Amino acid sequence: MAQTQASAPLKLALIEGLSGANANGGEAVFRNLAWAVERVNARGGVASAGAAAPKQVLVLDRMDSKGQTEEALSNLRLAIDGGARFVLQGNSSATAAALIDAINKHNEREPAKRVLFLNYSAVDPSLTNEKCSFWHFRFDAHADMRMAALMQLIRDDQALKSVYLIGQDYSFGQSVLREAKHQLGLQRPDIRIAGEELHPMLRIKDFAPYMAKIKASGAQAVITGNFSADLTLLVKAAKEAGFDGKFYTFYGNALGAPAAIGEAGVGRVLAVADWLPNVQTKASEAFYKTFRARFPQPEDDYVHLRMQLMIEALAQALDTVGRSAKPGAALDVVAVAKALEAAQVTLAGQTGTMRAADHQFQQPLVVGMMERQGAPGVPFDVEGSGYGFKVVKTLTAQAAEQTSSCKMQRY
Q: Do 118 and 139 form a contact (C-beta atoms < 8 A)?
């Protein structure tokens, strides 16, 4: 019997800052996505056109945007010319917005080379509201959803009477401060906003002057969406200044932040996420241990369940389209998008579904409090720091869901 030739691999183009100020964040993304792709390929890949056709494996191409939007747009063109039909990005909402615009225009001009944009971390709410696109799918909870989760704890902390808002001066950081003020007004109008500040993104080397203002304001807590060096340097400055208030963060659970703040963060640093290693289920524990076996170095300890769910959702959609396609047919990107709209995937005990109306993934959220490893509920630390995050609040997908103003052009 003649051997069947393997189908050509399907290219996924990761366009991310793999050098520059947020290179560690970009590399963390690559590890997560590479691991997810490895698992899909280990089970044979995804269905290609025709039931009898051999399966296709996925290939993840790395493309370094250097943290610059113009570089990302150049990479987009190179990715499309290189045959990629799936673009993955997330570590900048400003870059994500530019990619959505560029992909919208490209897909209108060149329908034979249409691409889909899978977003794993760009959380500006506008991306699935006024900027929503049929070609864009977001797998992270957006900033307003994350803020609502943090606000449940702030609402119940009756001792908290004043907060300071600080963030990066671009679309995401601005939206975090805007939503913090909005939700405080609704749920805790008695809390005084002691100050608010936007600063240049990933340019500040010393946050001591900012912390001096925060301390002088009398704020009991800080609310921030800062990430990467802007978070670690902020919390280092807080430690050095002797600030003993709480930090309500979006990203305080990794990429150097726990080690930077150390003992001063115990019981005071909170982080919201789609999942944390100390979620207390057997499926979650097994998932985390498998990741750590694959990436054993402490500095590589940054796993995102949502990124795994994203690749699983894509594989599910490709299987659906491949099984129903005529033998030898070209990939139908519109059909893949429609299949993605109906995606429901489960991994490590967590289930997420795609909302077709705006392409915003719906999944549970958790809030963790920084504690010493070994404390009740904290079997795992973060990046070998000796500190982990105890889950103190869990929201179901239904509780985390928010309405959307999306008016999408459909295909």
A: yes
Full DSSP string of 191-239: SEEEEEEEE-TTT-S--HHHHHHHHHHT-SEEEE---THHHHHHHHHHH
Helix (H/G/I), strand (E/B), else coil: 297: coil
Q: In CATH, what number does 144-273+364-400 get?
A: 3.40.50.2300
3-class SS string, 45-56: CECCCCCCCCCE
Which pLDDT tens digit goes with each residue over 82-132? 999 999 999 999 999 999 999 999 999 999 999 999 999 999 999 999 999
263 burial (CB, 10 Å; 0-12 / 13-18 / 19+) is exposed
For residue 3, pLDDT beyond 70? no
What integer is the mean pLDDT of 334-355?
98
> What residue ranges of the chain are covered by domains with CATH 3.40.50.2300?
10-141+286-362, 144-273+364-400
Instruction: Name the residue among 242, 251, 203 with its Cα closest to residue 223.
Output: 251
- Of the chain, the percentage scoring pLDDT greater than 70 comes to 98
Per-residue pLDDT at 6 exceeds 70: no
Cβ within 8 Å of residue 79, ≥6 positions away:
11, 13, 15, 61, 63, 87, 115
CA distances from 247 to 84, 135, 214, 352, 370 (A): 41, 36, 12, 28, 10
The predicted pLDDT at position 147 comes to 97
Number of CB atoms found within 10 A of residue 44's CB: 11
User: Residue 192 pairs with which residues in a beta bridge?
Assistant: 162
Q: Using one digit for the tens of pLDDT, what is the confidence trace for 255-297?
A: 888 888 888 899 999 999 999 999 999 999 999 999 999 999 9
Phi, psi values for residue 202, rounded to 5°? 55, 35
Query: Which residues make beta-bridge pairs with 354?
Result: 361
**Domain 10-141+286-362: CATH superfamily, name plus number:** Response regulator (3.40.50.2300)
Distance, in Å, from the CA atom of 29 to the CA atom of 397, rounded to the nearest integer, reads 23
